[in-house]
Amino acid sequence: MSDSLAGRVDAVTVVGAGTMGHGIAQTFATAGYNVTIVDVDDDVLKTALEKIEGSLEKLGEDHDAVLERLETTTSDEEAYGDADLIVEAVPEDIDLKRTVFESIDDHAPERTILATNTSTLPITEIASATDRPNAVVGMHFSNPVQLMEIVEVIRGKATDDDVFEAIQEISTEIEKTPVLVEKDIPGFLINRINLRFWLEAVRQVENGEQDERSIDAAIRRIGLPMGPFEVLDFSGVDVATMAAKSMRDRGVDLHVPDLLEEKTEVDKHGMKTGVGFYSYPTPGEYSRVDIPRERRYDFDPKHLLAPAVNEAAWLLANDVTTKSEIDKAMRIGMNWPRGLLKMADEYGIDRLVETLETLRERSGWDEYEPHPHLEEMVSNDECGRKSSVGFYEWDYEQTTFDTVRYERREYVAWITLDRPEALNALDEPSWEGLNDALEHAANDDEVRATILRGSGRAFCAGDDIAEIQSWESTEDASEMIENVLGPTVETLRNHPKPVIAAVDGVANGGGCELVLLSDLAVASPDSDFALPEAKIGALPPIGLTYGRMSLGKKSIMELALTGDQLTATEAESMGIVNYVVDGDQVADVARELARATTASGPKSVAEMKDFWTTMEDDLLEDWFDNAMGRLVERTQSEEASEGLAAFLEKRDPDWQR
Ligand code: NAD
User: Fold this and answer.
1) How many C-alpha atoms does 90 have within 13 Å on its Cβ side?
2) Is 269 noted as a catalytic residue in this protein?
3) 639 pocket-lining for ligand 1 (C-beta < 6 Å)
């Protein structure tokens, strides 16, 4: 054993043998400490030992050896007289806790470290019941202790550095992960963040804006193991209500939703009473709630993330903890796939600030006021991944290829058609820029997926009509169509990474064809899709050929013969896009799909894409070349000259009936 304060700890006393106490005792004994459990009730102690034995058996531990290290008593003197570390886990009542600490102070040796497992009470207030507040520290385990890895270590106002450090070291010794909370604030770290996230979910339901299942589906979609209502039911609606009220009563600006209090009052505590936000067939027994996956885009997760990030900003600005501790707490404590602040950087700090402002306007509550730390980040252009720095620094590259903007944010290439004044219509520099941007992404091994989108209100309005009209000969048309457009189509088809079209606005003609050539596509409800080339006397070469891989004859012909604009929902049911999601979520869902494709090995992805392209080549490449030849001819036809003129003069062509 080392000579540090933690190294000198061998005898541990756990006060209270209830839900938490027996788990804490088992954890210490399993790690090799000699443990005494003290309770006021002999029967409780007996039950605790039985529970420990059962749990050790389940976990496959050598229970004889562990049980040998465990003793029980109802005598304070026996329990505290020779303890190196005491962990208190009696009910959450400040007077009771203070009485227990007075007794500890009377009996425990000077060297003893005094820890409390309180969830909501101030460490400092508990410590003041003793004559040695410097020896008192928070050690907040999660339930069930045997399984939950996280322990919040909380510094009281008077806690000695070596006591704070010893608890960190001991937490690691018992195979837990400590999260350091440097100030004794209401809710500590995990509850403060969780409650912002959960309460916002409850408010959305309370206001009638959403229902539980769509919120839970959306939160599962971003990788969290359970949605907020599943978690509330699992850990106890009453427990969350109590924690929220306690934070509010201790001065935190936080509204406790009536819905939460009402459920608590009528014993709808969740799994343990058989009903909470959901119903459970056997009270006390966990059963997985049926959350329909197809509802996952009905709710925008950033409405819950924004208040949680705002709370995190407060914690950072007040030196309560660090970024890495916050992210560790959410990853390990709540099993999030990534930390909260990593997610914040993905969404963009500016967008989270906007969300907070919307929430504040809607409610009139100051609790949503964006923290100045976040506002400062926005004004310094530290918005996250898209500006290379946010809470973290990110791998980032930005360049332009003609009219096309290229950004690499970590492993995703964002290619943006950037002629918003022309609805991103594809003129020659745009086709060339797109080609170069795609090649740039293809040649960068760091890029795992490519997102294609348009700036402003459009995805892409198609080929540049004025440019087509300027071609004076078949040679001019062929120069552009066969030497520029054709090769770009090939570059896109042969792109070795998944290509995801993010459509928010018009996707007409060549724009619609780019969507057809993409591997996946997401669109906002305001988007529309059309292949109107024949309206100007031309034809859609990609729609008629490679479009066949997504659409059947009736769909292609409807698009190509009528030139009608289809809604995003119609495009979705036809198979042009995978999902229609609200406009503010289009880029997020594209990013999520990009991440989801990284589940596949990059070489498998390239192989599958090559397989598909080769298959298309066999079936359709000659026909594509044929269609391109016909397009060249068509652009120089009399019909096209009338069609192009009519389009630019905003009138009907002379063939229209
Ligand atoms: P519990 O009611 O299950 O157990 C408390 C035990 O303390 C009981 O066995 C009781 O007999 C005993 N006790 C009461 N007075 C005592 C005294 N003077 N001396 C010795 N023993 C005494 O409570 P719990 O759920 O284990 O919670 C204990 C503490 O842990 C609370 O501070 C709670 O906030 C905190 N906590 C609970 C959870 C949870 O999910 N239950 C999670 C984290 C933290």
Assistant:
1) 19
2) no
3) no
